[in-house]
Specification:
The structure is a homodimer of 97-residue chains. Chain A is of the alpha+beta class. The first copy, chain A, has a single domain, classed as Alpha-Beta Plaits, CATH 3.30.70. The first copy, chain A, is built from 3 helices and 4 strands, in the order βαββααβ. Chain A has a 4-stranded antiparallel sheet. The radius of gyration of chain A is 13 Å and the shape is globular. The termini of chain A are close together. The mean pLDDT of chain A is 97. Chains A and B meet through strand 1, strand 2, strand 3, helix 2 and strand 4 of A and strand 1, strand 2, strand 3, helix 2 and strand 4 of B.
Chain lengths: 97, 97
Amino acid sequence: MIRHVVLFTWDDEMTDELERQFAAELTTLSPKLSGLRAYHAGPDAGLVDGNFDFAVVADFDDVASYLAYRDHPEHQDIIARYSRPHATSRAAVQYEL
Amino acid sequence: MIRHVVLFTWDDEMTDELERQFAAELTTLSPKLSGLRAYHAGPDAGLVDGNFDFAVVADFDDVASYLAYRDHPEHQDIIARYSRPHATSRAAVQYEL
């Protein structure tokens, strides 16, 4: 199984409402993905100073399923409308579980 | 449930062997943690250029369990020997599942 993790920081224009829409659209997309085991996207809980603002963790059966998600047209459309215009930094890892 | 996510980049002195030891010590600690549901630490799979080098994702029953892990003396000892001396950047989020 391969886990994809991505964390973002946002610019000042990324409102709570946009963040909710971003999470909701990603979560709505997830049942359409083949080989997906688990998908959780959401904002930082505000427990620790200096954290990033938003996390996505997605577990896939294999690398091919992750790459299909990464390149999925609806995923790319969500990225183009939310994370690309508003991310001031992005940190990602894929690792074997 | 609260999920803790942390990603690191390493300096050149963080060898594969040190990375394996870091993952192994964290994984050995995890059964001692109260309120832990899942714990997975490991190196980036090398699928995508520009990624961070290492990920930890830990799921806890509640915020108190996460904070107990964060401040656990054995956890702090592992941090002091591996991630603090070798991390060139660190990105973290805690979020509600």
